[in-house]
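User: Here's a chain of 205 residues. Predict its fold as tokens.
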Amino acid sequence: MSPSPTSTPFQLPALPWTPAALEPHISARTLSFHYDKHHATYVERLNGLVANNAAYEGRALPEVIRAAAEKRDAAVFNNAAQTWNHSFYWQSLRPGGGGEPGGALADRIRKDFGSFAVLRQQLADAASTQFGSGWAWLVAESGVLRVVKTGNAETPVTTNARALLTIDVWEHAYYLDYQNRRGDYVTAVLDHLLHWEFAADNLPS
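Assistant: Prediction complete.
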């Protein structure tokens, strides 16, 4: 299910696997920077920004994100959205993942994309062609599955779309392992790490 703490101060959620569990595709060294430093810093900064601020205090994280977007409060939005996006990203991955989903999700993919191969290509293209930092998402919107990409901290939380899974394409997600070869990182995530059961759990009925 989507990460949504119920009150502030917000907590850095535990990883759903050990830091070395995604090797050789994502190294424990990358996770030590990505999770322990980048993600942790977003949470720390967010808590500092919303403390004693009546506009945000006591709200769930998605509510903080939407309120900050409406107020055009860039500092709160960026740190809140990145906190949520990263929490969702960790859940979108699992050791021994990848492959093709089954069940109701597979049926929806065939209905909305024609085949899993088409979906995989669209995810690969979205993640590889996002200019600069950002995210590639599989979302459900208005009863249809589709692939979207967002820049920087932008997130489906501010739209009518429901996220099923995501791929982080900020450089800190892959640069220590892949340097400038973002495409190789994307291929590794698609073929070996995507958590299709998590995506299926997020599928609207």
